[in-house]
């Protein structure tokens, strides 16, 4: 795509005082010579209307915005609401994607020409058209600040990630508050390490005792909360780090766990403690992610169960000696209780540091992917990996290389014209030029190519792609250094930088490949790293850092990605908005492609897709071999990826990244403190730079639903100064003496029994009695006890749907054929009983959400091809084509992925507004994520942050 060539115009680069001897010459790769990229797509006008689902209030409306017809409604909505500039209703308001892309790309082109990157105007035009083409076709995206600011009258801030510094003085602490405020106001996030501040166990020069860093965190947290509530583009995002040898480390570790206990107490007293609730603001430390910076010395002491010294900040004397294992367990206990603190591995981070002569890496940005010098920033961009998967399921590594080269060039150009919130940040960024190229859609790519996320093959493919991306980035950085010079801080760090390049190269050389797919990528990565080392010896490097893996929340939606960052697929069924209004649920389009890759026929694939549409998982899907289940494992659901599966994927990619990885390892609510401690220990052993965990339902302040109104409350009129008392106490509703009932005889796998179910006069199930086995036998006694427990639960208000969700699909003997025409097979007695109860007492709509139908209902499905076939035909066919292409292969007549997927298309449940809510409606499993403060819909995890599918709002910084 590119080559370095001699300049012919005789200009010199006056900005660094040396003669300009070479420049880039670019040839078209993506765009068509002589044709503008805009002329190659079909454009259409859409109305964007956004409503708060909780209040019904219209929060945004813009008519007749222009987008390519291939862009989803969700992508166009998010781009319109988040990135279009100008006051609504004014003449200067942007109304087309063309205007947005032109505003950004033309600014980049002009800067590239002004700063002598291109050999001539023709090359500059190729650069403009190539960038435009890739953005237009959703091959990559810059991070959000670029879309917010570039080409506007606002400061040209292009960075999403900032690292600040604070010293042990009041001036420095107050300056920290001010700098964070400016960064939050601009829609970005910042992190810093507080370890230079004296502990509360040390003396001041005046003779008094120091306050300690935790006390100063209160002021910063209050400032962040105030700015967040002021209506900025996104919530304030911040990271606070403390070294493990700081004397106040235990107070820091327990800070947020204590606040979580306070939240529970206030909630039980009747206060509104939901995220965004009116009383949550009284709780401290909720605006920051906390992380402990641990050393290898400490981790070895944990393993050896030996002691560890906590040291004074000024003179390094030992203030206290603690048991390392006890302190480590306290970190795990706090993370179990409230998900904080995370952990950062200091020695690993600094062993891969390219600029140690300038200073150590002490902190990260809020999402933990950017790690570099204090008072620095990083601008990010992410590639859509699925765009590089050819029709024959091979990965187009050559075009991937060419895309990386162009994107790195553009990102480096942006530093030439960018503005920064403080002069110290601007100076460090211009001197070291840190970049953060990354990717999204890894989970979808692995599934489409038949790789399990938690498999050796999946990890090898991900590692090879990451190695190629970073290798090509540094090779281009070395090429740019020959044109416009290495970064200003390179000379003093040259040996260290080249050492780290050799470490990356060695990691690539030791990478084991598993097939032709990753072998080709690895071969190119090996060539790229060879070029990195050789060119770097001669030219140096233009950039101190090149790559990170960010959450890609909002920009992931802009690119219509199924998965974000390094994450696996969230769920197998997703929520899709339609042009002209309405919505539907659709099985992810990577699933039919994966089934074809795995060798399944179109008929079998259709059956599997239909099963997934009804159940939300692949367990016992008809015709699907169990050894292929792992390909369809997801972040949530019955085949959720195990915690160590996430850790191992991070470990596979980490050696090939300049920075780190934004990702939270999710654990079930039943996870123990010991399990969290083991995850943190294994992260250190596997060479990660940072790790965060989240145990489901560990935080009160992140509501799963607006269920408060459904709780029984006994409010008493009191004096205004007394808090309203809310009592949460279920009431048992007993059945009348005489009640309707039905008795069902059944046989499951040859085992016979009887079930008697009694109901209230208003036709609600209230009791169940089971007769199985001989009277007096252990089995009969267990079934009697189970019947009593279930009946009492029903009378206390436990919904039958909850029992059905919990007990269907349980597998144990006896199992097999039944004598019930509606339930021909059962996986256990419990599976049969609760399917029968669902058929007897739940409505069709309630059963449809659970995937339970009568024989006649299933027959109607077969007759129509799908139980919602008629409704599906009324849905706009273009929406399906946008997702999956044509319906039939004209050469073979075989069903295409779209035709296979049609069995998995249905109108979305009425209560669903996002994929998270659809997942909950389909599976009955809660997604432990907050509601969006902008539009009220359920967010979903994205890296170490949360992102809203409805409006694109995120809880993070990138």
UniProtKB/TrEMBL annotation:
State where composition is biased (Polar residues): 1-10
- Where is each Ribonucleotide reductase class II vitamin B12-dependent N-terminal domain found? 47-86, 93-138
Taking every annotated instance into account, which residue ranges of this chain make up the domain TSCPD?
736-840
Annotated InterPro entries? RdRp_reductase_class-2 (IPR050862), RNR_2_N (IPR013678), RNR_lg_C (IPR000788), RNR_NrdJ/NrdZ (IPR013344), TSCPD_dom (IPR024434)
Which residue ranges are recorded for the region named Disordered? 1-20, 876-901
Keyword Oxidoreductase applies: yes
Cofactor(s) essential for the protein: adenosylcob(III)alamin
Catalytic activities: a 2'-deoxyribonucleoside 5'-diphosphate + [thioredoxin]-disulfide + H2O = a ribonucleoside 5'-diphosphate + [thioredoxin]-dithiol
Entry's EC annotation: 1.17.4.1
Q: Tell me which residues make up the Ribonucleotide reductase large subunit C-terminal domain.
A: 159-694
User: What Gene3D superfamilies has UniProt attached to this entry?
Assistant: 3.20.70.20
Q: Which UniProt keywords apply?
A: Cobalamin, Cobalt, Disulfide bond, DNA synthesis, Nucleotide-binding, Oxidoreductase
Reported function: Catalyzes the reduction of ribonucleotides to deoxyribonucleotides. May function to provide a pool of deoxyribonucleotide precursors for DNA repair during oxygen limitation and/or for immediate growth after restoration of oxygen.
NCBIfam families assigned to the protein according to its UniProt record, in alphabetical order:
NrdJ_Z, PRK06556.1
Family, per entry: Belongs to the ribonucleoside diphosphate reductase class-2 family.
PANTHER family assigned to the protein according to its UniProt record, in alphabetical order: RIBONUCLEOSIDE-DIPHOSPHATE REDUCTASE, VITAMIN B12-DEPENDENT RIBONUCLEOTIDE REDUCTASE
Q: Spell out the protein name for this chain.
A: Vitamin B12-dependent ribonucleotide reductase
State the organism named in the record: Microlunatus aurantiacus
């Amino acid at each position: 795509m590119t080559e370095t060539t001699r300049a012919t115009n005789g200009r010199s680069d006056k900005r660094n005082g040396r003669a300009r001897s070479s420049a880039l010459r670019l040839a078209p790769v993506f765009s068509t010579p002589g044709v503008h990229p805009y002329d190659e797509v079909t454009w259409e006008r859409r109305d964007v209307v956004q409503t708060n689902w909780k209040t019904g209030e219209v929060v945004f409306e813009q008519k007749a915005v222009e987008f390519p017809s291939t862009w989803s409604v969700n992508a166009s909505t998010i781009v319109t609401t988040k990135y279009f500039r100008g006051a609504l209703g004014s003449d200067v308001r942007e109304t087309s994607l063309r205007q947005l892309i032109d505003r950004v790309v033309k600014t980049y082109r002009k800067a590239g020409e002004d700063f002598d990157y291109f050999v001539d105007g023709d090359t500059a035009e190729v650069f403009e058209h190539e960038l435009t083409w890739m953005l237009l076709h959703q091959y990559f995206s810059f991070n959000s600040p670029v879309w917010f600011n570039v080409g506007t009258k606002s400061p040209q801030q292009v960075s999403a990630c900032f690292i600040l510094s604070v010293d042990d003085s009041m001036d420095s602490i107050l300056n920290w508050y001010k700098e964070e405020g400016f960064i939050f106001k601009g829609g970005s996030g910042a992190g810093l390490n507080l370890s230079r501040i004296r502990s509360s166990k040390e003396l001041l020069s005046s003779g008094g005792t120091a306050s300690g860093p935790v006390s100063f965190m209160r002021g910063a947290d209050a400032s962040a909360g105030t700015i967040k509530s002021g209506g900025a583009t996104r919530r304030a995002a911040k990271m606070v780090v403390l070294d493990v040898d700081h004397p106040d480390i235990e107070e820091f570790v327990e800070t947020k766990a204590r606040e979580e206990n306070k939240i529970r107490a206030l909630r039980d007293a009747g206060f509104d403690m939901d995220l965004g609730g009116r009383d949550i603001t009284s709780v401290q430390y909720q605006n920051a992610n906390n992380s402990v910076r641990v050393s290898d010395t400490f981790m070895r002491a944990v393993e050896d169960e030996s002691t560890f010294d906590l040291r004074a900040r000024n003179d390094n004397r030992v203030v206290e000696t603690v048991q390392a294992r006890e302190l480590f367990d306290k970190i795990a206990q706090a993370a179990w209780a409230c998900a904080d603190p995370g952990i950062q591995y200091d020695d690993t981070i600094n062993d891969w540091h390219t600029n140690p002569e300038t200073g150590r890496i002490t902190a990260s940005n809020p999402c933990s992917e950017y790690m570099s010098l204090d008072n620095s920033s990083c601008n990010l961009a992410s590639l859509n990996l699925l765009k590089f998967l050819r029709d024959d399921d091979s990965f187009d590594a050559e075009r991937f290389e060419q895309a990386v080269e162009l994107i790195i060039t553009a990102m480096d150009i942006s530093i030439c014209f960018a503005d920064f919130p403080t002069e110290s940040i601007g100076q460090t960024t211009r001197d070291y030029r840190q970049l953060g190229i990354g990717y999204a859609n890894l989970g979808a790519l692995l599934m489409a190519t038949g790789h399990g996320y938690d498999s050796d093959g999946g990890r090898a493919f991900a590692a090879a792609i990451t190695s190629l991306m970073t290798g090509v980035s540094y090779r281009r950085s070395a090429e740019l250094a020959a044109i416009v010079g290495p970064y200003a801080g390179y000379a003093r760090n040259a040996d260290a930088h080249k050492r780290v390049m050799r470490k990356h190269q060695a990691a690539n050389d030791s990478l084991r490949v598993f097939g032709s797919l990753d072998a080709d990528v690895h071969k190119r990565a090996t060539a790229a790293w060879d070029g990195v080392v050789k060119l770097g010896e001669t030219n140096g490097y233009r950039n101190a850092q090149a790559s990170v893996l960010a959450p890609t929340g909002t920009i992931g939606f802009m690119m219509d990605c199924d998965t974000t960052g390094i994450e696996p697929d969230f769920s197998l069924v997703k929520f899709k908005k339609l042009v002209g209004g309405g919505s539907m649920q659709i099985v992810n389009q990577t699933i039919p492609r994966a089934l074809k890759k795995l060798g399944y026929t179109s008929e079998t694939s259709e059956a599997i897709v239909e099963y997934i549409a009804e159940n939300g998982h692949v367990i016992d899907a008809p015709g699907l071999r169990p050894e292929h289940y792992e390909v369809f494992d997801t972040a949530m659901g019955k085949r959720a990826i195990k915690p160590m599966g996430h850790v191992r994927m991070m470990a596979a990619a980490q050696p090939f990244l300049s920075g780190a990885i934004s990702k939270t390892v999710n654990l079930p609510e039943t996870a123990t403190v010991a399990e969290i401690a083991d995850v943190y220990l294994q992260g250190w052993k596997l060479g990660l730079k940072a790790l965060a965990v989240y145990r489901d339902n560990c935080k009160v302040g992140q509501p799963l639903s607006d269920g408060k109104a459904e709780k029984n409350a006994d409010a008493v009129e009191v004096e205004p100064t007394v808090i309203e008392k809310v009592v949460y106490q279920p009431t048992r509703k007993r059945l009348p003496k005489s009640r309707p009932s039905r008795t069902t005889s059944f046989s499951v796998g040859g085992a016979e029994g009887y079930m008697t179910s009694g109901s209230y006069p208003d036709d609600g199930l209230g009791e169940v009695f089971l007769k199985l086995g001989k009277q007096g036998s252990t089995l009969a006694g267990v079934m009697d006890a189970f019947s009593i427990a279930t009946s009492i639960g029903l009378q206390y208000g436990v919904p039958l749907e909850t029992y059905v969700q919990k007990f269907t699909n349980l597998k144990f003997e006896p199992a097999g054929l039944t004598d019930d025409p509606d339930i021909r097979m059962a996986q256990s007695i419990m599976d049969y009983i609760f399917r029968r109860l669902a058929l007897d007492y739940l409505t069709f709509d309630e059963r449809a959400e659970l995937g339970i139908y009568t024989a006649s209902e299933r027959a109607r499905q077969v007759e129509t091809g799908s139980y919602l076939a008629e409704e599906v035909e009324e849905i706009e066919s273009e929406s399906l084509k946008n997702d999956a292409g044509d319906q039939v292969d004209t050469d073979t007549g075989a069903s295409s992925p779209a035709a296979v997927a049609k069995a998995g298309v249905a109108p979305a449940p009425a209560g669903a507004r996002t994929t998270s809510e659809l997942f909950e409606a389909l599976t009955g499993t809660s997604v432990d994520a907050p509601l969006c403060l902008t539009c009220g819909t359920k967010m979903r995890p994205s890296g170490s942050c949360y992102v809203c599918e409805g409006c694109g709002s995120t809880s993070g910084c990138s």
